[in-house]
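Continuing the batch. This is chain 6 of the set; chains 1 through 5 are on the previous pages. Same settings as before, nothing changed between runs. Recording input and output for traceability.
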Amino acid sequence: MSEIFSKDGFDADGEFNPMPQLWDGIDWNDPSLYQLTSDELAALNDGPVLPQPPAPVISELSPDAHAPTPSPHASSPAGGELLSEHLRDANLSTWAARNATRPVIRCRTPPPRLSDAQKASRKIKQDQRTEIAKHLHDAVAKHLQEQKITVELLSLTHGVTPQHINDLINNQTKYRTARKIHLTNALIHAKAKEMNSDQPNGSRYTLVELREMVAEDPQMQNLTRVEKATYVAALSEHREKRVSSVRANNMAAARDVLVTTERVVKELDDLRVRTGTYGTLFVVRGHINDTIQSTMHGTDNSEDFWDDVFESPMADVLRQYEQWGCTQNQNLNQRDSLETVRKQARKLIVRGLIALTGKKDITMNYNNYETAIVETYAVQLVGWPQGVKFISPSNIGTVGEIRKLRDTLRAKTCYWAALTPAEVKAHTAALDVRQLTGETVRQPRKKRSDAGISRKRKAAPTGGQGNNHNRRLSKKGKKNANTQHSEAPKSAEFVVTSDEDEDGGEPE
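Output for chain 6:
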């Protein structure tokens, strides 16, 4: 289909420009052109309703929102449960997300951008520190060269390797016993929270400055006993929170694992030098989304142990360990569930009993503990936690009590102790006295359901040897019979050699 336009629709250059008088009369900078009139807005509002989001999402985010248009997916209960399940499993990429009830160690915020003057000032300070570090490096290098010569002389004098002397010189430990919280540290911690909480990184007060502030603050002088205890409790809570909190993201968790693993490896190597022990370390991730690098370390030739005993390289064991850890898919609450902690407590109690008595087939008896365990094996379980009833861990019904028992067993405050013969006699005498007073010391065994009813015994078979195959064998007889059937001749009476086979000979 073609159209015919008049010559007025074309400009001087021959380009098509229909109705030039209309376009030229419009002011394109007028804001009213880009605003809708009331009639146009009413016409739009009367138009079709736009689709609304699903009902479960709106109800969770804004309970006061208007009810959305019903849809077949939102009206189905099964669809809502499936959607909520997807929402719960949407953010499982970090350890903190999988432990939503645990406190989180917040990441440090990046420092603000520096001005040109600040950059120049820092550049001058950096150059000064670089010059000081260079002089120190030269002095240390000179000292190390002198030390190397001294070590070589000592190795020749005493007949040992230079590496052995270097291990003795550089051997040290980074772990120290945690000291009791001092009031001075508690006051500095409180002052740091007060002064550095709103300060950006790079502008916070140093430790020396905080000490001076504490010394000059009149409110921190002449404190009462209650005020001192409050400051100490605040610092103790802060330290406990840092230890028991979880890392906020995968990068922080991976960095923490890397630094801690390096410290543990250094401690194992130093312990090997001091005591001659062997040690093996495996560190693997606990979830498929974690970015932690699996690590293994063995002192000396510990890697040969896995090849010699398990016939598997140490790297294969690490790989299988990592696969097992990823398939567990458990957070901290799931790892400390009631059934899991019960199992741990049972194992700790039984292992301690086996280690002390030396009997691998021994079992724990809680009902007759005083007689079947203490009186029989002369051992006693010391330090059972207060508030926890002395029963089998399988019968403890609260998570708090079973965790309390498990923690005391791990800390060795609840342990097995051997009794002397005099203590055993005193214990037996105390049991007899309690029994004379009417207390039930030895609980009787459960009776059979048909107790007191006479039962007929089967008559022994009569006859000669022909009926022996119908006779029921005792346990000892069965054992001897199995032993006889399982025994095989030590070697063949005649051995056929290859020469006889080639010559066509037959055995006699």
